[in-house]
Design goal:
The complex is a heterodimer of chains A (184) and B (168).
Chain A lengths: L2 H8 L7 E4 L3 H8 L6 E3 L7 H9 L6 E6 H6 L2 H9 L4 E7 L2 E2 L5 E2 L8 H7 L5 E5 L4 H9 L4 E6 L14 H13 L1
Parallel strand pairs in A: 1-2, 1-3, 3-4, 4-8, 7-8
Antiparallel strand pairs in A: 5-6
Chain B lengths: L3 H12 L2 E6 L6 H9 L4 E4 L3 H13 L3 E7 H4 L3 H8 L6 E7 L11 H13 L4 E4 L8 H11 L2 E7 H5 L3
Parallel strand pairs in B: 1-2, 1-3, 3-4, 4-6, 5-6
Helix pairs in contact in B: 1-2, 1-7, 3-5
Classes of the chains: A alpha/beta (184), B alpha/beta (168).
C-alpha cells in the first residue's frame, strides 16, 4: 500500500478531526481525494506540519491530526521532544513512513536504512507510540482520535506517489475556511 | 530574576492580546521566561528550535490566538524560510520578541555577526520592527504588538542588550 491509498482509506475516519497535512505530494494527494474545510494543507515549511498541529491542539478542544512524513520528521526531530513533553490529549501525530522523500523524487530517507522513528519518538518522551502497517491503520487511528491521551502513530507504507497537481487554492483561503471550522 | 522592564514587556504583550507564548532561551530574556513560567493566565511552552516554534505559532493562529515567540537574534537566522514560505504566506499575525546581542558591551564575540545582520534580515523579510533601547521605548509595545493583527503578519520587538540589563 502506498500513501495515497492510505489517505483514501482513512478519509472518512478523519471527518471529525482538524487535519494538518504535510507539505508537497501528501497534501496534493489528500486534496485530490476530495477537498474538505477541516483540512489545512501545508504549502511551505517542510517539517512544520507536526508543530502547526501541536500549536493548534493547544488552543482547541477538538481532535487534531497532524499527517507527517518520515522526511519531514527527520527535518524537525526536536519537535518530537516538544510533543513528548507538551502535547495535549487531543493531539495525534501520524507519521506516514515510506522511507523516501516523495515530493523531491523518492530519494531514500534514513528510515529506509537504520533510523527507527518510533524509537526516536519514545526516546523523545512520547508516551503512546503505536506502529502499524498501512493495511492495519483503521483501529489505531480510531483509538488515537478518541483517546484522551496524545498518540504518535508510525504507519509503514511503500514508497511512491500518485500523479497529482498543485493545490489550486490561495493560502489565505485555506487559512480562513480552516479557522472558521476550528471555531465552529 | 524578572526586572521591572520584564514585567512591563509582559504586561504590554498581554494587553495587546498576546495569549500563547513560546521561547527558545536567551540569557537576556531569562527574566521574561521566568515570568512566563510563573504566569498561569497565559499558555507558555519552551521549544527546541525557533522554526519549530514558528510552526506552533501558525497552529495557534489558526485557532484565533495571537502567538508570541521569544528568541535570540541568532535564532532568527534559523527561521528565514519558515517566515517567508509559511508564516507570511498564510499571513499569520504573531509577535517576535528578539534579544539583540553582539552590540558594544557584549562579552561573546560569536554573537556579533548575527547581531549585525538582525535588522537587515528583518527588513529583507518586510517584518516591522520596534527597537527598544530604553525603558520608555516599551510604552509603544502594546500598540506595536497589536499591529500584528492589523498587518496580518509577524512583527518584531528587538530588546537591546542595555535594556535587558537595566531595571534589575
Amino acid at each position: 500500500m502506498k500513501r495515497c491509498q492510505l489517505l483514501k482509506n482513512i478519509k472518512a475516519q478523519m471527518n471529525d478531526a482538524l487535519v494538518v497535512c504535510n507539505i508537497g505530494i501528501p497534501s496534493q494527494e489528500l486534496y485530490s481525494l476530495g477537498d474538505q474545510d477541516n483540512y489545512f494543507y501545508m504549502l511551505g515549511g517542510m517539517g512544520l506540519c507536526c508543530s502547526a498541529g501541536l500549536g493548534l491542539a493547544h488552543n482547541t478542544a477538538k481532535p487534531v491530526l497532524a499527517i507527517e512524513g518520515d522526511g519531514a520528521v527527520l527535518m524537525n526531530m526536536g519537535a518530537l521532544a516538544t510533543i513528548g513533553n507538551c502535547a495535549p490529549g487531543n493531539f495525534t501525530l501520524m507519521i506516514v513512513d515510506n522511507g523516501s522523500y516523495g515530493s523531491t523524487g523518492d530519494q531514500p530517507t534514513f528510515t529506509s536504512r537504520r533510523t527507527r522513528l518510533a524509537e526516536v519518538a519514545r526516546g523523545a518522551g512520547c508516551a503512546n507510540v503505536v506502529e502499524c502497517r498501512g493495511e492495519d491503520i483503521a483501529e489505531p487511528l480510531d483509538a488515537a482520535l478518541q483517546s484522551a491521551e496524545s498518540t504518535v502513530i508510525l504507519v509503514k507504507v511503500e514508497s511512491g506517489n500518485e500523479k497529482v497537481g498543485a493545490i489550486p487554492l490561495n493560502p489565505v483561503i485555506i487559512r480562513e475556511r480552516f479557522r472558521a471550522r476550528v471555531q465552529a | 530574576m524578572a526586572s521591572t522592564n520584564d514585567s512591563k514587556i509582559l504586561t504590554a504583550l498581554k494587553a495587546a492580546g498576546t495569549d500563547y507564548f513560546l521561547s527558545v532561551p536567551c540569557k537576556l530574556l531569562g527574566g521574561l521566561i521566568e515570568s512566563l513560567e510563573q504566569d498561569h493566565s497565559v499558555q507558555y511552552y519552551p521549544v527546541t528550535r525557533e522554526e519549530e516554534g514558528l510552526g506552533m505559532c501558525l497552529g495557534a493562529s489558526l485557532a484565533g490566538r495571537l502567538p508570541c515567540i521569544l528568541m535570540q537574534d541568532s535564532g532568527l537566522g534559523n527561521c528565514v524560510n519558515a517566515f517567508a514560505s509559511t508564516l507570511q504566506y498564510y499571513q499569520t499575525p504573531m509577535v517576535l520578541v528578539i534579544s539583540l546581542r553582539g552590540t558594544p558591551g557584549e562579552k561573546v564575540g560569536a554573537q556579533v555577526p548575527m547581531g549585525m545582520m538582525t535588522k537587515d534580515l528583518l527588513a529583507l523579510l518586510r517584518i516591522p520592527v520596534l527597537h527598544c533601547h530604553h525603558g520608555e521605548d516599551l510604552n509603544e509595545l502594546e500598540t506595536f504588538a497589536h499591529h500584528a493583527r492589523v498587518a496580518e503578519g509577524p512583527v518584531a520587538v528587538l530588546i537591546d542588550f542595555n535594556l535587558a540589563e537595566s531595571g534589575k
